[in-house]
Amino acid sequence: MRLIIVSGLSGSGKTVALRTLEDAGFYSIDNLPLGMLPELVDNMVNSAAQSFEQVAVAVDARSGIRGSAHFDAVMARIARFGIRPEVLFLTCEPGRLLQRFSETRRRHPLSREGLPLADAIREEKAMLDEIHANADLSIDSSNLNVHELRQNIISRLLDQSSAEMGILVQSFGFKNGIPGDTDFVFDVRCLPNPHWEEKLRSQTGLDPEVAAYLANYPEVDAMLQSITHFLGEWIPRFEQENRSYMTISLGCTGGKHRSVYLVQRIADALATGRDKLSVRHRDLE
Questions:
Q1: In what order do the strands lie in the sheet with 245-252?
Q2: Stretch 176-184: mean pLDDT
Q3: Residue 35 phi, psi dihedral angles, 5° rounding
C-alpha cells in the first residue's frame, strides 16, 4: 500500500493536494486525528472486503499533532506494517496566507478569541516546523495558483515511472524571493548579466542568443562544471538514504537569463539514466 500523508500550513493548499490525489485514484481522508492513523492502516492492510493500494490522509494542526516526537512515534507504529509513508508538506509565506484568509474570510483553525490571525499562523508554523523539516517533499504554494499547484503535485508525486529519487531543477529570481521548498540553492548573480545587453533584455535563457552570449564566458562554464560536479557526487549519497525527492534551485537577479540557462544545462547533465527529473522556471511562469 502506498500511503501519502498530506500536511502543512492552513491555507497553503492541502485541500487541493488531497483532491488531486483523490482524482488520481487515491482513497482520501481529510483531517484524521493523527493518533488514529496506525489503527486505520491496520484495518486497511488487513481488510478482506476491499484492497487499498493508494491512500492519502491529510493531517494538520487540527489533527492532534503534538510536535515531532508524537509524529515520529506514529510513523514508527505504521512502519510495523511494512509501510513507509511519504510525507507531503505544503507551506506558504505568512503574508500570502494573511491575504488568502482575508480574501476567503475563512477562520484559521488555531484562531481563538483575542488571538490575531498573524499570531495563529506563527503558532501553527512553530507546531509543524519539525515535520516540515523532515518531509519527503515540500511545496511552497506562495506563488502558485490552484492549477499550478495541482500540476506541481501531479508531476512530482504521480508521474513516477520508477522507484528512483525524483529531482526538480528550478530557476528563480532573488528579487522575487528564495523558494521555500528547496534543498540546495545556488546563487549565480556573480555571472555576466545579459540584461545589460539591450537586444537580449527581452529574451530569456531559453533563447539561443542568450545561450550563445553566456557560453562565451569561461566563468559561466566554470560555474556550470562546479555545480554539476557537486550534484553528481552528492545526489547518489542522498539516494542511498532512500530519499524520495530533491529540489535544486538556481537564482539570478530576475530569474530570466542566467539561472534559466544554467538550469537547462544542469538538467541535461543530470538527465542521463534518470526518468524522474523535471525542470521549472518559476519566474518565467
A1: 184-187, 245-252, 166-173, 277-281
A2: 88
A3: -65, -20
pLDDT top residue among 179 and 186 = 186
Domain parsing of the chain, residue ranges? 2-158, 166-281
What is the Cα–Cα distance from 281 to 278, expressed in whole angstroms?
A: 10
d(CA 252, CA 249): 10
Q: Which residues contact 283 (CB under 8 A, 6 or more apart)?
A: 171, 172, 173, 176, 254, 255, 256
Give the mean model confidence (pLDDT) for residues 145-162: 79
Per the CB < 8 A criterion, the answer to whether 59 and 17 are in contact is: no
Backbone angles phi, psi at 205, to 5 degrees: -65, -5
Three-state secondary structure of the chain: CEEEEEEECCCCCHHHHHHHHHHCCCEEECCCCHHHHHHHHHHHHCCCCCCCCEEEEECCHHHCCCCHHHHHHHHHHHHCCCCCCEEEEEECCHHHHHHHHHHHCCCCCCCCCCCCHHHHHHHHHHHHHHHHHCCCEEEECCCCCHHHHHHHHHHHHHCCCCCCCEEEEEEEEHHHCCCCCCCEEEECCCCCCHHHCHHHCCCCCCCHHHHHHHHCCHHHHHHHHHHHHHHHHHHHHHHHCCCCEEEEEEEECCCCCHHHHHHHHHHHHHHCCCCCEEEEECCCC
Q: What is the pLDDT of residues 24-55, one digit of tens each?
A: 889 999 988 888 999 999 999 888 778 888 99
How many whole angstroms separate alpha carbon 62 and alpha carbon 259? Answer: 40
Round to whole Å and give the CA distance between 161 and 116.
Answer: 46
Cα gap 263→250, rounded to integer Å: 7
Nearest-angstrom CA–CA distance, 150 and 254: 25
CATH class of domain segment(s) 2-158 = alpha beta
